[in-house]
Amino acid sequence: MTEETPGFEEKPDVPSGATPDDAAEAAESPSTEEGPAAPAGDASQTAGLTAQLDQARSALAERTGDLQRLQAEYQNYRRRVERDRVTVKEIAVAGLLTELLPVLDDIGRAREHGELVGGFKSVAESLETVAAKMGLQQFGKEGEPFDPTIHEALMHSYAPDVTETTCVAILQPGYRIGERTIRPARVAVAEPQPGATPSAKDEKKADEESGGPDEG
Predict the structure, then answer these.
(1) What start and end residues bound the annotated signal peptide (predicted)?
(2) Of 192, 141, 148, which Cα lies nearest the Cα of 167?
(3) Is the dihedral of CA 108, 109, 111, 116 positive or negative?
(4) Which of 5, 69, 120, 210 has its CA 20 to 30 A from that of 12?
């Protein structure tokens, strides 16, 4: 009859000369050679992520600035195009209406002579209406003070009944579009008579301003 050989447990290699306590500690404690490296690896990874995040934020700020500059340039471009479009339109309208001024002058002379009748009257009035819708305005009246910025003096005389240079006759009316004068009013002007004594009207006005005539 054969006796069974009892099993045995493998024990870790123990250096020669080691005590039994050292052998037990070696059997119970696993190797910890890689333990201290773990915290250093986490810190390095965190630092790398932080650097990448800072780089992404910097790139985002740069792209945002580029987008804002591009948007501002586009808005300026739109305003410039709109301004140029309006200017070109005004120039075109002014050029067209300037070419029509002689026709409007003929219509005005025909009206003054009573020749604006029948079908010609209807056509003339329609033309004047269209010109007015396009912004054409007529100016220049007898008796208004002479203004060299809107009047062109073609005739000059002296008159005792004026106190300043005055438009006494409108030879050709002036025309403007908005604030732009496309033709000054061509007028005859009169200046006060040199050395003329004040008229009764002027004396009355001076008395009113001074509080009435002096009483002796």
Answers:
(1) none
(2) 141
(3) negative
(4) 5
- At the top level of CATH, which class does the domain 136-206 belong to? mainly beta
Rounded to two decimals, the pTM is 0.56
Tokens of 18: 């080691």
How far apart are the C-alpha atoms of 18 and 13, rounded to whole Å? 10
For the chain, domain boundaries: 47-134, 136-206
pLDDT tens readout for residues 106-159: 999 999 999 988 888 999 999 999 999 999 999 999 999 999 999 999 999 999
Question: SS3 of 1, please?
Answer: coil
Specify the DSSP class assigned to residue 127: H
CA dihedral 106, 107, 111, 114 (to 10 degrees): 70
Alpha helices in the chain (DSSP H): 20-28, 37-112, 118-133, 200-210
φ, ψ of residue 211 in degrees (nearest 5) = 105, 10
Cα separation of 196 and 198, whole Å? 6
Please report where in the chains the tokens 């003339």 appear, as a residue.
124
User: How far is residue 78 CA from its own chain's centroid?
Assistant: 9
Residue 138's beta-bridge partner residues?
175
Distances (CA, A) of 156 to 60, 150, 172, 195: 74, 16, 15, 17
